[in-house]
Amino acid sequence: MRYNKNAFFGGLLALSFAAAPVHAAVSAAEASRLGQDLTPFGSIKAGNEAGTIPAWTGGLTEPPAGYEGSGQHHINPFPDDEVLFTITASNMEQYDEYLTDGVRAMLRTYPTTFRIPVYQSRRTHAVPDWVAENTRKNAVNAEIVGQAEGLSGAFGGYPFPILHGTDEEKAWQVVWNHLTRWRGVSVTRRSSEVAVQTNGDYGLVTSQQEAFFNFYNPEGSEADLDNVIFYYLSFTQSPPRLAGGAILIHETLNQIINPRNGWGYNAGQRRVRRAPNLGYDSPIAAADNLRTADDTDIFNGAMDRYNWNYEGIREIYIPYNNYRIGERGTPYSEVLGISHLNPDLTRWELHRVHVVEATLKQGERHIYGKRRFYVDADSWNTVLLDQYDGRGELWRVTMGIPKNYYELPGVWTVLDVYHDLQARRYHVLGLDTEESGTRVFTDDVPNKRYFSPASLRRRSVR
């Protein structure tokens, strides 16, 4: 893989930055810890003193027997693991130091139905060797541009495996690691999203999705990014009133100088139009307004409307290694409870997380006045997110439900779940257990014209 540490987005983009990189990277001596006392992606390799979090010993890199390849629903590699104990509203005080405010609120809001089945902790995250090598290079080269609006010196790996600088800078680095985390090169899937009402009713919105993670282009380099982290296409297939519509996203690396580019195709009008409202707190209609634009992927987009603070590392119970909830043939009606996912299909484990708090800047507008992120220290996935309204009241609790995709390898979410505690409704992204297959990962590098507005129209009208 080519890597050019001095390339700076290339051409015109380099001239567009108002500020040069000002947040220095770590030293080569510090970076040498990667693969030694730190994992290749920057987490503490050793287990905790209590022995309740194990040491990382390489992660899960081989599929279990019977797995036939990418696209097949995953076989649970830990079928004999049993629940160690269950946290409920009645015993939650016993585990208080290991719970987030959002999880406590879920237990109190749904005391008879929501519970946390805790299993032994398994540190399954892993990355290919070339991603680990690029992460080592990024550790000494990657820099924040300006006030977190961009990166330089990073490509093909986590930008900041070793956090450094002020608490504000560390917070930015954690979020950038989430935004650019390893999820393969190209992925395709058909899945559904639902908004579950207070009585348990829901309607499926099913779509075919395709993504090319340009930041991990094995044939590219930082100079070739053209300010795009990834390309995303989604074609709605049902219900009939929405079928035929499509959306195209170019997710930009620096959203201040060049905001996210989006286009929508309207099947009735047979026209492609720019979609200007795809950022910040713009509501998502398919989610019945339970998800904002920057809620997608747990969090995405520009960070400029918030003040950011790094609060350190905690050991908490988080969803992890969730294979049962993604097993082929499990009816959606079994996955979806009235107020939350069926807890009997979930798996929680004790893991280390980075904690980051974002508070809305004075004079800025967003429906969330405060957000607290809990980011898995191994995979850099945000797995829990507490979101507060303008009065400071906890409003929405977001959960990323992850597992290891051993064909990559790497940990990514199976489902993304958004709970509105005030409305007592919730929204789920990524349902595919009733589909014949699941995500298909490839290392294919598409022609970028495939993700152009002109291509969107041609493909939509077929």
UniProtKB/TrEMBL annotation:
It comes from the Bacteria. It comes from Marinobacter shengliensis. This is DUF1329 domain-containing protein. The lineage of its organism: Bacteria, Pseudomonadati, Pseudomonadota, Gammaproteobacteria, Pseudomonadales. Residues 1-24 form the signal peptide. The keyword Transmembrane helix does not apply. Pfam families: DUF1329. Keywords: Signal.
